[in-house]
Amino acid sequence: MDYRCVGNIHLFNEPIKALEHIENTHNDIILLDLFMPKMNGLEVLDKINDYYKDRTLERPYIIICTGAEDHEHRKEAFQKGIMDYIIKPYTSDELLLRIERISEFKRMEEKIHFLEKAALRDVLTGLWNKRALEDELERIAHLSKRYHISYSILLLDMDQFKKYNDTYAHLAGDELLKTMGRLITKNIRKSDFAGRFGGEEFLLILPYTDSQGAEIMVRRMLCELVEMNIKHECNITHTCASFTAGIAVKEKEEDIIQVIKKADEALYFGKRNGFNVATFSDLLKKPSP
Predict the structure, then answer these.
(1) How far apart are CA 224 and CA 40, in angstroms?
(2) In the chain, is it the N or the C terminus that has fewer CB atoms within a 10 Å radius of its CB?
(3) Domain range for 96
């Protein structure tokens, strides 16, 4: 049997038929195997991304379920926007718990849309303002404690921004911050949360993201900004605009304040040791005696 329907759950054995269903119906969560007849899971993922290219807010959350542990497949799947990656065999309780966590993110996403109507956007950059960031930090702290959700915190700070303002005037500085806002918006996933933390500093919350995923995002944004070649003659490392980033990943017993502090320490380590870099908080740990 190629298709079965159990309540609100639709089951397909043929990826082509599943894609037809996905294209024509609303779906909240999709469970996808990597190995299927005629088309593999990554190819199906590409098709799904194409369907929702201009409807990113409607895109379902996707879980990969596979019997093969392959680091390259895992990396590629997360780069294509999946929310979770489960290795078979797994119990029904484990699967239900993961779906429950993702459903919670769905509800969080709906609240984000509500917040958009509540004037919690930074007027200049279009990102969330500090008040919205504080609310979201409280929310992710609660989710992490309840569901053991991992996350990364990124702090980005524009390099030599005061000198940029002094040299090119404040209107040019405002335009640079707007450019940074657009760059961040372009690169984050819909489950991520990004805001202007103050002045020329930005804070990003990346759920289900390890140090490798955080590094990929930061380096991509940094390369894109440098490629824009926005003139900044007072910048120490470049003659164009750049930023420095501090990256911290939540460890088991840490609260969110500790994670932010780690990201802040990593950021200022990068500032002290040459701008235009991404620094991991793990690099600042003192070696054990």
Answers:
(1) 31
(2) C
(3) 3-102
